[in-house]
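Can't paste images in this forum, so I'm doing it all in text. The chain is below; anyone willing to post the predicted structure tokens underneath?
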Amino acid sequence: MRKKVFLTLTILLFLSGCNSTTIKSKNTQYDKSSFNQFGKTDFDRMADLEIRENIESLKILATKLYKRNPQELKKSTSEDVAAMVKWIFNGDHDNKFSQLNNKIEVSSLDLAFDESFNGDRVLAIIVGLKTMMLKAHGNKVDFYLTDTLNPQNIYNAARNVEVVVWKLSSKKKQDGSPFLITNSINEEEQNLSFEREFGKIIGRTDYFAYTLSEKTERTITRAVQSVTTRLFLPFI
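Text version of the structure:
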């Protein structure tokens, strides 16, 4: 009984700030009375918001990464950053890119930190994160009463995002240079916008994973990794 009460309160808190007919966020909205909302519970809508908001965060990160690393953009296109980001997320490519040897998920993430790789590292990271998050959610962005999600996979996705953040800040090429420039801290400037946006993704994903664990009564096995040998976690 206590778990059910906790779950109900959690979902209500997640959806707080939304009125009774329309749920809105900065980048997404839907009308609960529309046809495609039939067959959805409030928990399904919570899942919809979590994955869609995370994808919006990935778009922001892609834009920031290309602006900080313009040499990577030139490896893929002569167009501007906005056009490239639109192509990554809305292009007719089914997440398969010849520049990445059609690699997706963790394989694409590994490619971004492979010194022998001469392609677009921003593309490798964003495609890797996008496809990894989608896989953890059953390759869906719309959820209904009949759908089932594994909270362990959602949890593992959050840990994998943490690994990416760690690699971006700590892993270096043989000459000591970073694979990609992200945050900067110096006497004149402090820019931690990357860290904050990644933190939003991790926070949303963790919150949903533990809420899903309560709903399904499936225990999450927490991962403990060495600081120096962090590995991407697999999905069940």
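Residues 2-7+41-216 form one domain. Residues 15-28 have pLDDT under 50 and may be disordered.
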